Amino acid sequence: MTNADPGVTEWDFFVSYQQADRAWAEWIAWQLEGAGYSVLFQGWDFVPGTNWIKLMQDGVSRSARVIVVLSPAYIGSVFGAAEWQAIWVHDPDGAKRRVIPVRVADCERPGLLAGIVGIDLFGVPEPKALQRLQDAVQQALAGRAKPLNAPSFPAADGSTSTGTTPDSGTERTSKSRSVSSGADAERPRFPGRAYHVEIRGAQGVQIGDNNTQVNRW
């Protein structure tokens, strides 16, 4: 596996995962393709008759970004590390945001991955996981996470203004693609935990650049 920088980008995303996490990886790939992105996914594209080594090489050399499906199984894999590092070597400072870690289980971010901001999809209902994936993709492409609407004025007496908040659900601009939740019965089942009650006060954590970012909903 060489480290040649892609001369031609054939896929928007290459999903790097271990077989133990295929359900998660397939769910992620389905949402991305449903939103119109091109995805190289081993479970769908490495079919009988194809050259496995060539496709893997193409995945790391001709994909704009890699989604790292991070779990204890992935951390223990030598091949998994080789896949994302082959892309990371051409963007070590994260300027192009080519490596996107997505934790699907509670685990440490080993080595260089500890310095890359990522997201957690585990422990939350499917709609919340989908929103996190959608936001991560859009922010990685844009390079910023500025909200579309102005924040409410933080009044001195503790009350909030009646202005529109960043989480008001205002439709995004037509230029931004959103990850589709699709109602197709054939779509992969969400691998995470199913919830039947409203969750309040929970939080997800992103770790990167020696900072800990807490997402609340």
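(the above was protein one; protein two follows)
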Amino acid sequence: MLFYEKCSYIFAKKELKTLILVFFGVASISILDVLSFGLIVPVFQVILFNEIPNFYFFKINNFDMDINFKIIILFTFLLIFLIKNILIIYFTYFSIKSLQNMSGKISSRLFNLFLTQDYIIYLKNSSDNYLQKITTDVGNVNNFFNGLLNLIIESIFLIEIEILLFFSNIKLF
């Protein structure tokens, strides 16, 4: 809870909601990514070898695979990849734009905070110190949230790949 309190101190409520939306959007993109990767082998097994893959949670027997069925499966597969890539582009743009807007608002709030301080405080500190806090420290916050976003993306992707491998090769376990 300490992390959320620190974030709520830095960000406004609207910015926190946007940040949470970015995290959930990226998590859903990760799910679509694993789904599209997991469909590669079954789709090509149907198209190239004329056999329906056996999944351990359901089986299809006596199914006629004509050329129309293969075309429908191929176009569905391509549509899933197209939708996934469009969503990846959109959420990447949205997350970058959101983090840039947040860092700009934080810089503006910090600058306004420095402007409202007493003149005696300015005499005690150098102007380089204020400039560093506005530019470098805000950039560090932006880099932290970019790194955290990438860590969450990669962790979710790794867990989903492990789940996919578990269900696709359940005989090993």
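Reviewer note on protein two: The chain has one domain: 15-55+63-162.
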